[in-house]
Amino acid sequence: MANTASAEKAARQATKRHARNRWYRTRARTFVKRARMHLDLGQHDEAQAAVRLACEALDRAASKGVIHANNAARRKSRLMLAFNKAAAARA
């Protein structure tokens, strides 16, 4: 429990930041999940668009400081590996 006015304000700010950060994190997870679903179902065209959107969402979350830049890079790398593997199997 905050004892000073500045601590109360900091707690309010932390709550707002938490809600905003959660939005970016959830959005990135959703797009990654959607891309993996399309890859698993073999829907190449939809997967290509979904991977692009997932990479954008991860980049945006990293630029906002919600996730670390290396975390976003690792997730994008794994997603692209899965996409390229599916594309190679398709060809």
Describe the overall structure.
- With 91 residues, this protein is mainly α.
- It has a single domain, classed as Ribosomal protein S20 (Methane Monooxygenase Hydroxylase, Chain G, domain 1, Up-down Bundle).
- It has helices spanning 5-41, 44-63, 69-90.
- The longest helix is centred in the N-terminal third of the chain and has 37 residues, at 5-41.
- The radius of gyration is 18 Å and the shape is elongated.
- The N and C termini lie far apart (60 Å).
- The model has no long low-confidence stretch (mean pLDDT 96).
SSE layout and pairing:
Elements: H1 5-41, H2 44-63, H3 69-90
Helix pairs in contact: 1-2, 1-3, 2-3
CATH fold label: Methane Monooxygenase Hydroxylase, Chain G, domain 1
What is the share of helical residues? over 70%
Estimate the mean pLDDT confidence. 96
The separation of the N and C termini measures 60 Å
Q: Number of helical runs?
A: 3
CATH superfamily membership: Ribosomal protein S20
Q: Detail the poorly predicted runs.
A: none
Shape: elongated
- Overall structural class, as computed from helix and strand content, comes to mainly alpha
Element-level helix/strand string: HHH
CATH uppermost class: Mainly Alpha
In total, how many beta strands?
0
Supply the CATH architecture: Up-down Bundle
Using only C-alpha atoms, the radius of gyration works out to 18 Å
Number of domains: 1
Largest sheet, strands/sense/barrel: none
Strand content: under 5%
